[in-house]
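batch job 7 of whatever, protein = Bacteriophage phiJL001 Gp84 C-terminal domain-containing protein
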Amino acid sequence: MPGLEAGFAAHIAAGVTTLCHCWQVTRRDGAVFAFTDHDMPLRFGGVTFRADTGLSARALAQTSGLSVDNTEALGALCDDGIREDEIEQGRFDGADVQAWLVNWAEPSQRMLQFGGSIGELHRAGGSFRAELRGLTEPLNRPQGRVYQKPCSAVLGDGNCRFDLSEPGYAEERAVETVQDAQSFRWAGFSGFEENWFVRGRFDVIDGPAAGLWGMIKLDYFEDAQRVIELWEPIRGALPEGTRVRLTAGCDKRMETCRLKFNNLVNFQGFPDLPGEDWMMAVPRSDGANTGGSLR
């Protein structure tokens, strides 16, 4: 078999094999989970692959072109392995996945069968099903800039270049009153004008939901309290005293970039792009056709 280590190839060619599958999942926060469908734990590459997770895999589809390699991993939820609340919080979304075919009698003999990331992940009845996407999947995404009037950059990223650590653009506070993990209220929260945080980020700094974040939908005052509402609930517990960070929002308009952030030099939109009415322009029989309004 071309591409296989000689000892592993000889083992497979022998006909009677001692093979199993091993999976390693590395989340974006650095947490590593490793499983095997063998009946005993295995260790290689400095990682121990647990045998008591009930993890299995469906057939792997791979191609030589740019179409997406894909498969599914099936497994049982357990308290000290993949937990239901962590799936609900989205902590496994986009995690890196590697899958090996391993000689369990000699783990140094192995072959990497799959490398990619977790796509959609579902849970039901004490189990989970994870769609795995191959390394070619990002090649199917649109690349390059889009010509549009609003700014295409994300506030604070490499294209925007705005420094969000500047005073007045972020606020850290302890949770006081929260409803449904989506609506938050503070007394004495002044120093920022109303709607300052609309379209901004709401990041959880500590507590059970640390690392989770949401987008801010509304920012207003009501009954001497400041109210911050998110588009979707934070998928984790937020007890009183949990530290959160609110970051100012940007509506992508050139005026906002200039007046709110003083960052017009890095504006990534095309505000003078003609609108759809420009396509309806017709010749005029009188006067000058300057390209202005037809009315």
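notes: Residues 6-140 form a domain with the Thrombin, subunit H fold (CATH 2.40.10).
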